[in-house]
Structure prediction request, 651 residues.
Amino acid sequence: MARLTAENVELATEIIGHFPRPKSALIPLLHLAQEQDGHLTDDAMVHIADLVDVTPAEVLGTASFYEMFKMEPVGRYMVNICTNISCQLRGGEELLEHAENTLGIRPGQTTADGLFTIEDVECIAACTEAPCLQVNYRYFHKITNNEFDELISELRSGARSDIPAHGTLAQVRQHIPADRQAGSVVPENTEVPVWLSVSEDGNA
Amino acid sequence: MTIDVPRIITSRFDRDDSFTLSGYEATGGYQALRKALASSPQAVADEVKTASLLGRGGAGFPAGVKWGLAPENVWPRYLVVNGDESEPGTYKDRMLMELDPHQLIEGVLLACYGIGCGQAFLYVRGEMPLAQERIAQALNDAYAAGYVGKNILGTNFSVDVILSWGAGAYIVGEETALIESLEGNRGMPRLKPPFFPAAKGLYMQPTIVNNVETLSNLPWIINNGGEAFAALGAETSRGTRMFAVSGHVKNPGVFEVEYGVSTFRDLIFKPEYAGGILGDRELKAFIPGGASAPWFFEEHLNLPLEKVTVDRAGSMLGSGAIVVMDETTDAVKSCLRIVRFFARESCGKCTPCREGTTWLEQILQRIYDGYGRPTDLDLLMDVSDNISPGISWPPKQTTICPLGPSAVSPIASAMKRFRPEFEARIAFAEQNRSSVPVDFPKAASHA
Ligand SMILES: Cc1cc2nc3c(=O)[nH]c(=O)nc-3n(C[C@H](O)[C@H](O)[C@H](O)COP(=O)(O)O)c2cc1C
Ligand code: SF4
Ligand code: FES
Prediction:
């Protein structure tokens, strides 16, 4: 795989248009590529470099900083189990161990059928709902071992169509209609915002 | 006694349609924007100043004062919304984004109007697709309804609010790292000074960075007036605030309470809040403001959740995250887990943090594993001192940002109070040293 598809290039162009500088679209575009292929391919990164007008090395430089970007294929489902402090206190490590035993893999590994990767992750902002996990970043709060097993068998049998394959984040995107867009304000535009120059009694 | 305080930012959380435009409009939504547009931008900024609204992202800097730090006559200015919530123990911004995205968007618009920001960027943590989705939908609806974009509600106020998101890096919550990330770079903090965002931020322009919860307060403040907000709370901490109480409590939860009035004891023990320690066990320690904060103990329970009081007592309210540890907690294990977090999340830009946090983790790991050495406790303090000279509070730092010193907080706390637990593990290691094989097995990866 793969450069971005024509459809994704169109989306990429729209996203770039939201920002004063094309490079600001880099992380959203990397997510787009990961949504397309499940992980980041070299070809996609080279393509993105073209789109935002930087070198491929710069794209890799940024991508490699962020944990969500995977340079190698991962399972269809990333199971991220939190073991940070609030979860540790409420059984997060035991849940992780149960997951390791159930799936027969260690954190960072993928099951032979390519379905599951597990990760031992840092706080995912669900601390009062510990122990908790995410499957492809969809939350599951206060999970028992039994519930974990159930979830895994549902995912295995394809019963969880609500959880898209790894790489897909939000399924709604921001679209700004042309007639409603105020327009990006580039740093070179030194004009005082017009609404600041109105009289004391308002703007209406 | 129930506390009779208005819910300011969580008022819609019980509604099924809290995140929709119609639900928002049916509950007073976008009225503050109309009110603001009928008065001057300066009036909006003044109300926020009067409200004495403190930032809710961690540092607790007054929002009104921050807005005033943008240099006059340097344009354009930007607004950056920090929705990167990832301080361990913290759970509130995600709720605000998922359950009331329009309230946040209205807050963003009020800030842009008052400060004169030409464009706003709402940066949501990468691992939160539902929040991203709810905000995207809310923005699409708000654009269509004329609340965002060109000539808002028919006035000459025009601003785009752009949704962006991260990709997994705690450090990007630090405001200058967040700006780097928004520019498409590795999320490494910039040195302050000179790169205070209000002076030199996004694209080197004046940039106000505010937290999601901070901005979510603005619609209420504009609707009800800064004075009404300042009438709630205590001396230096006005309004209400969300606190997440997690760990060993019966009823973990996120509670909006009057700021500066309720005490830690109220939040941890009262039935309407966290309801007491799990299994009615004894309290061992609690973290008052997220993993970066020094730990508190029994004697701190009666302190009010008030910024200055907590600062003076040697810790901070940080991001409103209270983590409760009961008497069964292993202090070495908890300390190690938090230090491991900072070691993993260090961006690597400066040596004391990159090397220091790694060493702290390794030393703690070997103490925990039963291979600790008698010199290790001094070594821990020595490495800590290299990151945060004097190991005092508020912390000094040899680093570019406060992440490095944050790794010192759990160590200083646990060593001060629970040193015997560390010593016991080391003594145990000493006793058993002769029984440890000379070539004890290495981790598989080093085999
Ligand atoms: C290591 C580190 C992580 C941080 N993480 C966050 C965060 O996740 N969310 C946040 O709002 N502020 C975070 N902050 C604080 C921000 O730098 C900044 O102070 C804040 O967003 C300003 O908003 P406020 O004034 O409205 O609180 C962090 C700071 C540091 C040093
Ligand atoms: S203190 Fe740590 S996280 Fe902060 S800039 Fe230095 S290396 Fe990076
Ligand atoms: S510590 Fe696990 S979600 Fe916060």
